[in-house]
Amino acid sequence: MFCYQCDQTTRSETGDGCATTKGVCGKDSTTSDLQDLLAYAIKGIAQYAKRARDLGKTDKKADEFILYGLFTTLTNVNFNANRFVELIHEAVEIRDRVKALYETAAKEQGQTIEELKGPASFIPASRQDDLLMQAQWGAILRDRDAVGDDIVGLRAMMLYGLKGTAAYAYHALVLGYEDDEVYAGIEKTLDFLSCDPTDANDLLAGNMEVGTVNLKVMEMLDAANTGNFGVQEPAQARITPVKGKAILVSGHDLKDLQELLEQTKDKGINIYTHGEMLPAHAYPKLRAYPHLVGNYGGAWQNQNEEFAAFPGSILMTSNCLIEPTGAYKQRIFTAGPVGWQGVRHLENHDFAPLIQIASAMPGFKEDTPEKSVTVGFGRHAVLGVADKVVDAVKSGAIKHFFLIGGCDGAAPGRNYYTELAEKTPDDSVILTLGCGKYRFHEQDFGNIGGIPRLLDIGQCNDTYSAIQIASTLADAFECEVNELPLSFMVSWFEQKAVAILLTLLSLGIRGIHLGPSLPAFITPSVLAILVDKFDLKGNGDPAEDLAAALKQAA
Amino acid sequence: MMTYSITLATLDGKKIQFNCESSQTVQDAAEEAGFFPPAICKMGSCGSCLAVCDSGDYQLKNYSEGLLPSNAEKTKDILLCRTYPQSDLVIHAPYGSDKIQNHEEIPRDATVIEIKTLAERTVYLVLQLSEDEENGLAFNFEPGQFVELEIPELELKRAYSIANTTNWEGRLEFLIRLQDQGQFSQFLQNQAKEGQALKVHGPGGTFGLHGQSLKPRCFIAGGTGLAPFLSILRRMADWGEDHPTQLFLGVNNEAEIFCGQELNDLQQSLAKLKVTICVWKPMGEWDGFRGTPADALVEYLKQADVLPDLYLCGPPKLVEITTEIALKQGISAENIYCERFS
């Protein structure tokens, strides 16, 4: 195996990347190799899907499979080797169907049928050992000796960005939202990657294209969330348990949460959100369920301890799963693209086993004194008071905005964000999104003329909201987003964050601080280009970075 | 008396350390230090404290034959509850650190809700657990694990594999072979009836599915050695996790065949499951496989395109013979998992 797609990848002087029998995330080498091979097989679908689309033909199921398949290969999503064997074979079946669609259309339209190579002609071995041998074709480092680390890294960044984009698009899809333009963009960029490009400029352009597609996807997901659950409104989310039986829902999939809330109505079971599900409390149609009682625990990396202590059943709806311990392995369930061998997977929103366990377990024995956090400052809430915000900036009451967004993780370096938030001056506003906020969101940062200093925009995908807020403020001040007193402090962990980074870069946002450490796939030469073009910065000392950010914007 | 340092490493790479006197078992010393590694009977008869000693000298005293391989001295397989150190020891356990508790296991109360004869000398026993303040009706076990059943008034304990899957209703099913001289067998035959109170210790044992492997699975069950496989197969069916699997169930004669209908049903749910009942000495017109599971395994391995992971549960003799066959046919020792009857 070789994998360096997330922040926690092994770092060493001899080279970065997880390359032994097991990655830091817990993924074993077989699963990792099969994930690479699945991504390879999916490129094969895209090669034909793009060409069929150019001739006006599409295969909806194939488009959806591309999203689902790529999502399963994200960090902390699916660890089940046998599942990947199935998905690889399914991918090739789908590719052959799309191939036939393309060839028929080409023939009908009098076009020459292209003979495609690489993933387009991949035939998976029937013997598992042989399949693992084939995994080298999809391996990240397959031609490193010939093309060098920079090209390998640029291709990897593009593929990882696409994985994040596909995951967001899948979230929108389950809420009934999809867009041909998005499928076309994803297939076009995958087709580009399937040819093993070797030109750095082309690859940089490809990466920016992924960022552009992801912006569209985040806009679509924003429409899906607000369309299904109403626009986010500022609200209090209780973070202490109440007496009674309990189910915990983690991940990002609000549809799963809504289905579960429906199925547990009047059953005497309380539902708690976890991790990235916290912003659910801001959506009116989800808040309307009285048994959605609060949020439990912190960010994803603490789940081994927190899930063990949770006295009910647990549903993991998307990323971020880590190896369940024996203490709760029997009462945690996966849904959608998520999977772990030996953990039960639930399909089609059939949550009966989850409910049965919660009913059998004792639940929380007593109420814990109430504590809560404020959520729900999506673009509608913030822009609803835009004039007030603009006045506060004009009067000097608000001097700076810090967007502290992205993932949390176990790395000690992530204390940077706590320190940074704590050191921000009283006349600045902190905008948060993603689960990085768990490090400091319980603190009281006060308010500026009635505007809370800490405004939570929502999940990581609500970066779209942040971009809208920034654009609206820029319009109000008749300037560019880069000229606003706004600093982007992005904490990345996995591939959704890569997609977001590419979106911000594709919009021309400069001066982004990216941490806690720079991705291993960004080589020194590529970093030099990103610094030159976008003034991308790594994390330094929080106080110094803060001072520099305030000075730059002044 | 000497005191030695014991290091117990778990599968997740964690280690615990404690001191152990030469007159003390490693299990007792661990408990004295506040660590409670899985152990049920603590008298060398259940096998739940199985581990491997990586370095150091020790004495193994008084345990049921068959719990450990006959060359345990060489393989360094040990039972923590029967191991007395004679130097510092480094031991590795076949489970993760989460299995080491910080308190002694408390047995659960249960009552018999069904008992019936399934076939010659084979009893089907169903228990209902009582609700417990900490767990409610929940009983956390992995398919393949066993519990120890205790009849308090007879001061009698026996270990049996659980035949059903985790169900959160407190229901536990067992397949029990009646032994002529067995005290528990006597009890089941003569005294046990619905409503009988029992205590359940455990669960224990590390036998179970290594589901991450891509290889086909071959299960070999000797008689009621079917129980853990039934649990595993039922879960595969419940969860919709089909995987190429061959089950050989060995019985002496047709009258001993049991769970035939259930195995047929499982084959309906799991398209990749093949069940072969091996009758050693048929009394009549048996048109199925004639011979032992060991005979059947030889045939199977000869025709296998890919060598399987081999799972064995049954009498020690069957386990030893089938292991030997498998090794000879090229299955590596690390792909053979076994549970021996003691």
The helix-and-strand class of chain A reads alpha/beta
Radius of gyration of chain A: 23 Å
**Largest beta-sheet details of chain A:** 6 strands, parallel
The CATH class name of the domain at 29-227 in chain A reads: Mainly Alpha
CATH superfamily of the largest domain in chain B: Nucleotide-binding domain of ferredoxin-NADP reductase (FNR) module
Give me the secondary-structure category of chain B.
alpha/beta
Would you identify the CATH architecture of the largest domain in chain B?
3-Layer(aba) Sandwich
Q: Total number of β-strand segments of chain B? A: 19
The helicity of chain A comes to 40-55%
H/E element order of chain B = EEHEEHEEEEEEEEHEEHEHEEHEHE
What is the averaged pLDDT score of chain B? 93
The structural domain count of chain B equals 3
Task: Please report the number of helical segments of chain A.
Answer: 19
CATH topology of the domain at 29-227 in chain A: Substrate Binding Domain Of Dnak, Chain:A, Domain 2
- Euclidean distance between termini CA atoms of chain A: 48 Å
What CATH first level of the largest domain in chain B would be assigned? Answer: Alpha Beta
